[in-house]
Amino acid sequence: MKKLILASAFALTLSLCAYAQVTVSGDRVSVNTENNSLIINARVGQAPGFLHFGARLSDADADALRFAGSRSLNAYPVYGQGEVREEAMEVTHGDGNMSLDLVVEGVSTDSAKDADIACITLKDKVYDFWVKLYYKAFRDVDMIEAWTEIINGEKKPVLLRKFDSAFLPVRTGDVWVSHLYGTWANEGRLVEEPLQRGMLRIENKDGVRNSHTSHAEIMLSLDGKPSENTGAVIGAALCYSGNYHIDIITNDSDYHRIFAGICADNSTLTLAPGESFRTPELALTYSDEGLSGASRNFHRWARAHKVAHGDRERKILLNSWEGVYFNINEPGMDQMMADIASMGGELFVMDDGWFGDKYPRLNDTSSLGDWVVDKNKLPNGIQGLVDAADRHGISFGIWIEPEMANTVSELYEKHPDWIINAAGRDVVKGRGGSQVILDMGNPAVQDFVFGIVDGLMTKYPRINYIKWDANMTVGSHGSSYLPADRQSELYIRYHQGLAAVCDRIRAKYPDLTIQACASGGGRANYGILPWFDEFWVSDNTDALQRIYMQWGTSYFFPSITMASHISAVPNHTVYRVTPLKFRIDVAMSGRLGMELQPKDMTPEEIAQCKQAIADYKSVRPVVQFGDIYRLVSPYDNLGIASLMYCSRDKSEAVFYWWRIENFYDSHPPRVKMAGLDPDRMYRVEELDKAPGRPLSFEGRSFSGSFLMNVGLEMPSGFSRELMGYSSRVLHLIAE
Question: Does residue 213 share a domain with residue 78?
């Protein structure tokens, strides 16, 4: 039952489980998880005051904050009436006034199935304009989500010029920020830097995809240079699939001021009288167990609440792309299905190149939008392939790119008005010199895109998996659907339309597995993942570069979401040649799959992959659902990288070790493990065994204390077979 509370009137404590609770005590609002607290002063008639975010505080300690000497900063600063620093909101009222003066009107609390929620309602002192600050504390994980709801009660439209999801002040000190950068084929790269005077802006303005060049997630190490398993860390992730910004401003105050939300550049929003707008959530977590501790919080939250089917094991698949590219044909697909089935795989995915009638899809210059089978390539259609997968005892999946079209397509000939492009301008084309984007803000386009999936699944209900691609950015700003005075809303309406389509798909096909591919890792974000099971980390499948990309990506996303495939050499992106064992051992640290042509493999390679798949199945629950502990970073330039996953009950662990630099007379460090029970004994078994003599500790047992304080020495000498790319995967089983 919802309760409205005037914050100055009385106190209420809601405690719905042993750990998560929302407490309203006088003017203080405490939003708590098991180990985190976010505390705000909400005195009626005053601006809300931010008091604390970090380790959980008792009610008595929360009350003591008022005497601790800390300043109470405005928890949601807005433009006007004395605010001269960066702000979270800017508006223009119907009469032209550009100022806001928001004060607390009241506090309400509510409970959901999985969390407790506090809502602090703010109202402008003069205008009938409202902002509700929401804070959601999950009961089972250390995560708090913050967002705003903006309500126009005025008699004229209000223009929103900036409308951030949340504001977070962090006390100035030796604070470092970790965030991700990159480009196509080099996504998820990690940078760590101290916060200095000035502004650090992390943003993306692609329009469709938002995680190629940067990510909408950060970690703040509060005790100096980041450490993986010690130290105080705040993590933040904006749960949005479109354009965003995260600004960290350090000036002459005692605080780093952090703002996060939809990027309003060329994207203002008009609220009609009575209309409201909900901003995306900013997820916040705190850990005193270093970067890996914050990652474990993100991963648990993601699997439980933010990823489709986060409690379901992911299948081991073969994707056809790097094996045959556009050269799809029925015998070839059958052969690849037979090969992956013989190696123990569970799913085959037919990639691009299977469709088009008037314009067959022979390359990337045509056919997007014409989602009909090319009968010259597949005379028995998709049904023939589904039947073949059944015969081979595996599942079948298919590639689509439903938000896109080519100008060389029947769809474009029929609906040129459906694409995004500025009126009166030449059509801006992307991939293949002819790709364009459909306007997802248009309800007719939404029906069309839903119909692509619905048509496939209705006709072929045994399709198990869809790879959903998106290969173009918004290059010309214009919608023939939106009126002239609402063109600035194109980006936001696009992603609202995409969400509406995904809602319809999930309502009708709740069990379908869907991968978010977007020219590789362009859609690794928590705005899209509630409808998607995983994302394609990168089109670059080179094992060495994947270590760096998957390392950074693991800061915020669990292994169950990271599609990681064994590919052929020379690698199709960087042409590097690495041994099969190294490629296997990297791919086994994520959601294992294959991206090659099996008929080009030797019998020995097929046997090795078959054994690796069996090994992965034996540890899949630990890798996909366990707790991550990153041990030695590839970014530390020590010649190796190492991490491990531990089951929550500490009965099993999987340890990964990769040699990433090949220099004679180099001496990589011995790696100390983490996350084990110091008092239990663990038997060591190597997976995907290296050629030559077995490890000296193969089959032997060691205490958790020994493994975490001394560690095992990995043999890292050079060999002709491994070409210097040594790697080891160890399975630790408690006795």
Answer: yes
Are residues 358 and 290 part of one domain? no
pLDDT of 717 reads: 67
Domain range enclosing 132: 3-306
Cα angle for residues 469, 472, 474 (degrees, 5° grid): 135
CATH number reported for the structural domain that contains residue 35 in this entry = 2.70.98.60
Question: Does residue 583 form part of some domain?
Answer: no
Residue type, 86: E
pLDDT of residue 269 exceeding 60, the answer is yes
Q: What are the C-alpha distances in Å from 602 to residues 580, 599, 605, 606, 609?
A: 11, 8, 5, 6, 11
CA dist 611 and 628 (Å) reads 24
Q: Is 511 a catalytic residue?
A: no
Q: Which of 638, 636, 657, 651 is nearest to 711 (CA)?
A: 657
Per-residue pLDDT of 12-63, as tens digits, reads 333 334 456 899 999 999 999 999 999 999 999 999 999 999 999 999 999 9
Q: What span, in angstroms and rounded, lies between the C-alpha atoms of 116 and 141?
A: 12
Confidence at residue 13, expressed as pLDDT on a 0 to 100 scale = 36
List 206, 539, 615, 627, catalytic entry:
539
User: Is the preceding peptide bond at 510 cis, omega within 30 degrees of 0?
Assistant: no
Please name which of 119, 144, 420 lies closest in space to residue 278, comparing C-alpha atoms: 119
**Global confidence as pTM:** 0.96
- Interval 551-580 mean pLDDT: 97
487: buried, middle or exposed (CB in 10 Å: 19+, 13-18, 0-12)? middle
> How many Å is the Cα radius of gyration of the chain?
27
CATH number at residue 728: 2.60.40.1180
Catalytic residue among 352, 469, 542, 615: 469
| C-alpha to C-alpha distance for 129 and 140, rounded to whole angstroms | 35
Whether residue 288 lies in the annotated active site? no
Helix then strand count (H, E) for the chain reads 12, 39
